[in-house]
Records
---
Amino acid sequence: MKRNWQTILAVLILAVATIQIAWVSNTPTATASDSDDSDSDDSDSGKGGKPVTHLDRRIDRHAKQTIAAGRHIFRFDTFGDEAFWGDTIKLHQAIQGKRFGGVGPGVSPNTALKVGLKVDVDALPHDLVENLKHGQVDLDDPATTLALLKLNAIIGVTGIFESGERLSSMGTQCALCHSTVDDSLAPGIGHRLDGWANRDLNVGAIINLAPDLSAIAELLGVDEKTVRKVLAAWGPGKFDAELLLDGKGFRPDGKTAATLIPPAFGLAGVNLHTWTGWGSVPHWNAFVANIEMQGKGTFFDPRLKDAEQFPVAARAGFDNIRNDPDLISAKLPALHLYQLAIPAPKPPAGSFNPNMALNGKKVFEKKAKCATCHVPPTFTEPGWNMHTAEEIGIDDFQANRAPDKRYRTAPLKGLWTHTKGGFYHDGRFSTLHEVVSHYDRHFGLHLSDPEKGDLVEYLKSL
Ligand code: HEC
Ligand code: HEC
């Protein structure tokens, strides 16, 4: 009996010592990741969660590897969508132009930058960066665009080259709409900012460059001229993810039915996604990759069988898409984790008045009751984060284009990065002052002018 106790005690001491060694040997990595977190996320999650066991370390390793894979997919994976962007609508022909075997004048870097495409400075060789700095690169020559494509430097666009020279097809990526650059070298040329909404990007104008939109016309059951008119109406920073479902190009008031591109950061902890709460991040990622980007994968959502709400989708069988091989499904887990890992960026110092923001926080939480829906720190409701048009005092056109016929409480972190194009799903309020005045009227808040000003500064500080 005594011998047994001694053995148990010895084992215990050994175990404690082992844990301590593991703890000490892990301290440097844990510290490094803590300091990484500190400038990007002010939530409490992670503190005290240092890896202790073998499994802990496996989880950390797995997360790191998965996030790296997700980053690559987000930036570079076309999911096989070149079959659409290249082979079907032949956008690559318009990009390279007649001189290189395509059609039309071709797209120069200046034209590309004008429609909001961005150039990744980290993909450029040193001498090209130097030449760009000294204005020694011809930005009016489509040949330069082709060179940039070969370097994989145009964000969200992949050129596929035949025998090294001719652009034979092209594909698009998530980063096209959900990344921009910091303009470090020149406007539109800089380091990648993944997750930021590209509010300069004129998707409609870009698709309109394609010589053959007959496939879209056929899908929608209209002529090509109508498709081009719809696309031309989108304007910068907007895209219509519901067009290929219900065929509605315009709202009843004649304005475009397209919505603003939202950011893809700060989404961890948020239940429903998109302006109208279509589903989770992986639901929407599968939706976009299969239906909008026209990649090759699997997608199942029987809500799209409703021929009254979604006549185009029901006709096309978008409720049940199956491709063999499936180039999307295996990428969803990494893509999911990567997006959840992108923190909302903090506003630069000096971009808001901190004292006013502090007062504004009180107004947000107390008198204006904003925080009843925009619950910090995600700034949306934990739970079913959806509201009717009536509740928030706007029309229901866009809400009715989604299964739940509601608007999702928009997460507000990083609001300062997407002030271009306005606020709410369609940018109907061009400033935060207008948003606040709308709520003041709609909820009868009786906010004073200083309170409104403070509230705006708070919104800018998120
Ligand atoms: C052509 C532009 C475009 C591309 C490409 C694109 N998106 Fe989006 N994305 C949008 C727009 C517009 C919305 C809003 C749709 C809506 O509310 O109806 C959106 C919504 C989202 C949302 C919801 C964000 C939120 O606030 O909840 C996520 C997440 C997202 N996209 C991720 C992706 C991923 C991942 C890819 C690549 C598989 C992708 N998107 C490709 C334009 C794009
Ligand atoms: C009843 C719930 C509710 C309340 C209360 C509420 N909001 Fe909202 N908020 C929403 C919804 C839903 C949206 C999305 C509207 C849309 O998609 O068009 C939104 C959108 C916004 C946006 C635009 C975000 C963007 O990305 O364009 C801002 C800013 C905002 N709210 C601030 C406030 C402020 C400030 C208050 C308090 C005065 C407030 N909200 C009160 C539900 C609410």
---
Amino acid sequence: MKQETINIRVESEFCKIPTNGEIQIQSWEATERKKRALKAACVCFGLAGASAFLPIAHFVLVPGFLLAIPFVFSFISKQQNKLLGGSYLCPCCGTKMELHSQPADFPIQDTCSTCRKSVSIQMVA
Ligand SMILES: [Zn+2]
């Protein structure tokens, strides 16, 4: 598990001068991804077992959690990195914006909460 701070460039089609910012990204090696996926699959299996004791709801919950196992395993084992958070200045109005936790799929699209202009966030190489 590796956590690093990366510089970003923020552009908007409405404003010509790009701004900069910083984001924190967490990334996992292949073996760590497998471990995380296995742990999440075990949690699903445990929830399926625990929900077997709930009257009536167990008809839906037990098969639901068991069917979710391959999807959860696949999703988490493919997740190489994740954006933990960050901040930047809006290129149009200069408001400081916060990025919250989300998949790190660049370019990230965001909307300024002050001027309502859409911005595109790129990693700086
Ligand atoms: Zn703005």
---
Amino acid sequence: MLKDLVNPTNVNIYVSKLSDVLIKAVEEPLGYAINWGRIYSLWPVHLETGCCSVEFGAASSPRYDVERFGMLEAFGSLRQCDLIVVLGTVTRKMAPRLRMVYDQMPEPKYVIAMGACAITGGLYLDSYNVLPGADSVVPVDVYVPGCPPRPETLIQGCFLLQEKIKRSKIK
Ligand code: SF4
């Protein structure tokens, strides 16, 4: 009976079906575990040129304590960090540096644009040397609006990023 079912002509089909079943069985729990690790160990580096940096710093203070939500303080080196928070205006002169910082970070990496200046150029929108948003240089995952956004808003932005990571597929 088994001989009739499995023979040299169709054994490859069975093997490929079996591998599909195995991949489906481990893909979801493995992806969940890997994403869970990524969500609660976000390590930011910040590129700051404006007053939003005070709010960013306040988010790590004992009052807001962003670390309890799985985002470390911004003390790492670029080659360890997986999240870049862009604060303040990005000038044309700074744009290649921002890209260089982003390129040095290991995959997977995420970007938060914090404040009106980082999102649109803010007050300096019409300036000859300010870019209309960090997303013209790096791919932004989450926009945190405000001028400046309060630390709670940044924390809310982190939750949105964590939700996005949770839904992402492992490559
Ligand atoms: S968004 Fe407002 S607070 Fe933030 S850097 Fe620009 S001007 Fe300053």
